[in-house]
């Protein structure tokens, strides 16, 4: 059984969750990206790549629901997990707060171009989406964008950059991903795993 776990902020909670449902995770040593323990193979890609690995042959994965929506890979998502909670929001400079309906023609900087395009298309607004890979707050500070769409947790970063969260687009959570073929060929194992995950989630919430 192979499992893709996100390097970065979700790794610690992902490891704890798996251990609570009976899967002991061995983290990769040094700069290695693969480890093994008790018949499990663990891969440690960047979080945005986890759905790609699961779609293309890795049995299981954990990442944020935002990544699943943005990447749109063909994977089975049976359950939201009780960690990685945050939200995706529209953020504006404090001195340029406007209602959502006044954002027609805005330049929106984001790491999530597909989600952003779909959101504004559904609202019936035309915007120009600028895809960035780094700190999107800088786009608002330098005025190359009128607004940004980003993940908000504590809100401290946007406050420090004189920005304000003005509209919550969606809540985000870590989710469990299952490869479509694994879902069928290892049906009993996957069902048992999902049951354990649900029991764990119910017990702590």
3D architecture notes:
The chain has 205 residues and is α/β, with parallel strands linked by helices. It is 33% helix and 28% strand. It folds into 2 domains: 2-84 and 173-204, 3-Layer(aba) Sandwich (D-Maltodextrin-Binding Protein, domain 2); 86-172, D-Maltodextrin-Binding Protein, domain 2 (3-Layer(aba) Sandwich), CATH 3.40.190. A 6-stranded mixed β-sheet has the order 2-3-1-4-11-5. The protein has a 5-stranded mixed β-sheet with strand order 8-7-9-6-10. The protein is elongated, with a radius of gyration of 19 Å.
What attributes characterize this protein structure?
5-stranded mixed β-sheet, D-Maltodextrin-Binding Protein, domain 2, 205 residues, single chain, 8 helices, 28% strand, 2 domains, alpha/beta
Task: Report on the biggest sheet.
Answer: 6 strands, mixed
Number of strands: 11
- Using the 3D structure, state the CATH architecture of the largest domain: 3-Layer(aba) Sandwich
Shape: elongated
Structure summarized in a few sentences:
The chain has 205 residues and is of the alpha/beta class.
Helix/strand layout:
Layout: E1 2-4, H1 11-20, E2 34-37, E3 40-43, H2 50-55, E4 60-64, H3 65-71, E5 76-80, E6 86-93, E7 107-110, H4 113-123, E8 128-131, H5 137-141, E9 147-152, H6 156-160, E10 163-172, E11 174-178, H7 180-185, H8 187-204
Parallel strand pairs: 1-3, 1-4, 7-8, 7-9
Antiparallel strand pairs: 2-3, 4-11, 5-11, 6-9, 6-10
């Amino acid at each position: 059984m192979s499992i893709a776990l996100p390097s970065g902020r979700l790794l610690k909670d992902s490891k704890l969750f798996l251990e609570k449902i009976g899967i002991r995770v061995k983290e990769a040593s040094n700069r290695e990206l693969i480890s093994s323990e008790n018949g499990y193979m663990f891969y440690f890609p960047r979080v945005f790549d986890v759905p790609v690995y699961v779609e293309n042959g890795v049995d299981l994965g954990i990442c944020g629901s935002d990544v699943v929506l943005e990447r749109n890979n063909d994977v089975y998502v049976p359950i939201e997990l009780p960690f990685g909670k945050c939200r995706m929001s529209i953020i504006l400079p404090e001195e340029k707060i406007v209602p959502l309906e006044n954002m027609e023609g805005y330049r929106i900087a984001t790491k999530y171009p597909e989600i952003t395009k779909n959101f504004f298309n559904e609202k019936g607004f035309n915007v120009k989406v600028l895809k960035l890979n780094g700190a999107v707050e800088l786009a608002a500070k330098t005025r190359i964008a009128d607004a940004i769409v980003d993940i908000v947790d504590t809100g401290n970063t946007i406050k420090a950059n004189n920005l304000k969260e003005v509209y919550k687009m969606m809540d985000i959570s870590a989710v469990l991903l299952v490869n479509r073929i694994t879902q069928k060929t290892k049906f009993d194992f996957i069902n048992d795993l999902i049951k354990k995950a649900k029991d764990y989630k119910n017990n702590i919430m």
